[in-house]
């Protein structure tokens, strides 16, 4: 059992709002199995294969130049761990397993987790299990505006030969394009957008549809996430297996922040680098830097391998 790290610095905290609806446990008891429900996995499977680690298809301002050579090397790899989890493992999963070995750094959940460790607990809210986290749910109604972003996490079990962690759960959250967090900012205490929970598929992958987060003072642009052993455990912060953050690439950030609505982020980006960031600075975010593809006009995809 992993305890949450201390909170990061950030905007001034606000008073929490009351818990929502009947909670995640109620969702689990009334929803169909997500392994057979296309809402979470069907169309998202293809997106996951594109988004995680080697998002392909569209041109990208930030995709590493070595992507083509890496993909070529991947084609010849066929780890037994992948075949045990899925009869037809995706090239993305095959590459992720081949590169597995370094566990994801444990990071702070920050001052605005919304998991019950610091005020409100969105994990108790009915409706939190979802792929699209752009809008608020329950009695809230606001929608976060911004450049579309689809991000995928591939969960791998390091102690068991980097096998995919099928059935694990991920809670992800991040700020809006103004750098504000729902449930905490004084103008958003009754909103819960940009927060959601999903169950990992047979490839150990979860994919969220969201918007590109802004950059606020003191932090490099990022996405928070917590990993739980199962959906049944995704109800309290103290039960997490890992707490970490995704770092977004500078090329993607510069592209997005040049568009209307992200004006505040331009100034904040100039004040922080990956090396000076109080979370990613110890190693420059090397193990948390997403592989990204896309454009501000068409939207971005981001992928990260999460070895636990």
TrEMBL record:
CDD domains in the cross-refs: intradiol_dioxygenase_like (cd03457)
Cited PANTHER family: INTRADIOL RING-CLEAVAGE DIOXYGENASES DOMAIN-CONTAINING PROTEIN-RELATED, PTHR34315
Gene3D superfamilies, sorted: Aromatic compound dioxygenase
Domain Intradiol ring-cleavage dioxygenases: 143-218
Keyword Oxidoreductase: yes
MF annotations from Gene Ontology: ferric iron binding; oxidoreductase activity, acting on single donors with incorporation of molecular oxygen, incorporation of two atoms of oxygen
Ranges annotated as biased composition (Basic and acidic residues): 14-24
Short name of any one Pfam family annotated for the protein: Dioxygenase_C
Protein name per the record: Dioxygenase
Protein's organism: Pseudarthrobacter equi
PROSITE patterns named in the record: TAT
Keywords linked to the UniProt accession: Dioxygenase, Oxidoreductase
Residues covered by region (Disordered): 1-24
Signal peptide start and end residues: none
